[in-house]
Amino acid sequence: MSLLRLDRLTRRFGGITATKDVSFSIELGQLFGLIGPNGAGKTTLFNLITGVYAPDEGSIEFDAKSIGGFPPHQIASLGISRTFQNIRLFGSMSVLDNVKTACHMRRKTSLWNSVILSSAFQRSEIETEKFCRHLLDLLQLGQYAEENARNLPYGHQRRLEIARALATEPKLLLLDEPAAGMNPQESQDLMHLIRRLRDEFHLTVLLVEHNMKVVMGVCERIHVLDYGESIAEGAPDEVRRNPKVIQAYLGVE
Description:
- The chain is an alpha/beta fold.
- It is 39% helix and 25% strand.
- The strands form two sheets. The protein has a six-stranded mixed sheet, with helices on both faces. Strands 2-1-4-5 form a four-stranded antiparallel sheet, covered by helices on one side.
- Strand 9 (221-226) and strand 10 form a beta hairpin.
- The two termini are 37 Å apart.
């Protein structure tokens, strides 16, 4: 069953076509990779899926519902969450509070209950903190809960972004270059983490990544873009041997 389906998705910026007729579908529970050289249109696709941009042509269907052109907050409430290529944390807030900020969509207490500090609100606060601390422990960040986010090492900040995205309780998690800046051991740990998150939270994952060891090691299916157009799709071994993919990445026939 397809959770996400893109059909002939096109987005232009003035005279530049960032994506052209891109089509693919992601099955429920799948680890799906999206790769391509710099400027291939990968982040533009992320922005289209998450509502930062509206498509000029084509359609986006999520969980059997057309979402093309929906605003980001509505798409997030439907169950799509993401991290960013450039880290976007609240640097002056604690690690724990960074994760708590993502929980507001799933809160069931009213504004009035929060004003009067009702027992329902206090129970909700306790449950939220417990959930967020569980996520931090899972991402090996529990010991940093009270630290300001800006004080974390780079690799830890990457994991904090993932924890915050998980706090929205998504069905589809979009990871934009999560291994960027990581050393080989951290990248290896990330591969295990992505698989564990998929299994523990029953997630579907769409991964954009330049680290081919991570992509080939974790993804079950891979779609390849070049200059905004699809050039290949298949299992990792198929994609690795595809002449068009080799040419796009290495510049050789």
